[in-house]
Amino acid sequence: MKTYLLATSAILMGATAASAAGIERTNQSVAPLFETGRYLEFSYATVSPSTSGVGGLVTPGAQSGDLTPSYDQFGFAYKADINEQLSYALIYDQPYGADVDYPAATGYFAQGSTAAFDSNALSATLRYKFPNQFSVYGGLRYQVISANAFVPFVTAAVGPLAGTPYEASASSDGAAGYLLGASYEIPDIALRVSLTYQSSIKHDLDTVENTVQGLGVPSSTEIETPQSLTLDFQTGIAQDTLLFGSVRWVDWSSFEIAPQQYVALVGSPLVFFDDDRITWTLGVGRRLNEQWSIAGAISYEETTGSPTGNLGPTDGLLSLGLSAVYTQGKTKITTGIRYVDIGNAQTRVGAAVPGGVFQDNHAIAFGVKIGYNF
């Protein structure tokens, strides 16, 4: 059991990244750190969300159209042992992202609005094993983000720039954070429990805004990606069968994107979340033979009912993921599919709630991960 199922708890998230709380696109997993010997992996996922709503207090009954285009995700990891106690891993991911494109000419108040938020991160992690099956690990995480937005329903009401749509463009910014964790393992029964803390990372982005004060107004936008705490577990429950899961808390209530002139015009941030989020995942993995293993998992995130911004109209989720692993020699190929039922949400426009009502939305993700032990 220990040789072919130890990494199963990472299969579904690693092979089928999809949106979770806030604008999170990966769970910032450190699973490669637990691989045996030297290990190299590459991952790719494509995600197709379908998100649409209807106008509330602002444009009652108007349909927003689908505002979330498909996107791709890439990942990379390398792990190696220094000696019997020490090992290290380099992990690249794209932890946060948003791509919003409201169709034009729908009559919905946000028609024609666009926004993008991109991130790339590299973690360098060192792990130390104690003789008593405990281990500790920690490292640094360097992250680069960029953002831009075009919001035509926000304009100057009077003056020479009356009717000029709001627009903001922020240059990319890099900053560092850290991670700390501990784990306990009993390899003979494929048991592993790990607890990982990821720090927040603070960015200051040079921003140019078009506002009531003029075109190309320079400003600075502070964005702090949220801290998180993740409990992962797995254990054998029968021959060739593994139970796995996780509980992940993310401090989304401290996250916002609030360009200075936008807040002055509207009175609220461009992107915000009123509540922290906890995502629960539970799954089962099963080895079929020497080459094939399969796994399935369900994830849940509570719908809070708190209003969201118009560039992130989601609230909670329920998802089902299925994956298959083909092993040939030292190579392991994982493919997976994940269906996400996106929680219903209400958006806020200034003091108006609901600005829009979003229901019956979903996302489908397909992914592949190739791992090689050597």
UniProtKB/TrEMBL annotation:
It is found in: Cell outer membrane. InterPro entries: OMPP1/FadL/TodX. Keywords: Cell outer membrane, Membrane, Signal, Transmembrane, Transmembrane beta strand. It is a multi-pass membrane protein. It comes from the Bacteria. Residues 1-20 form the signal peptide. Coiled coil: none annotated. Belongs to the OmpP1/FadL family. This is OmpP1/FadL family transporter. It comes from Tateyamaria armeniaca.
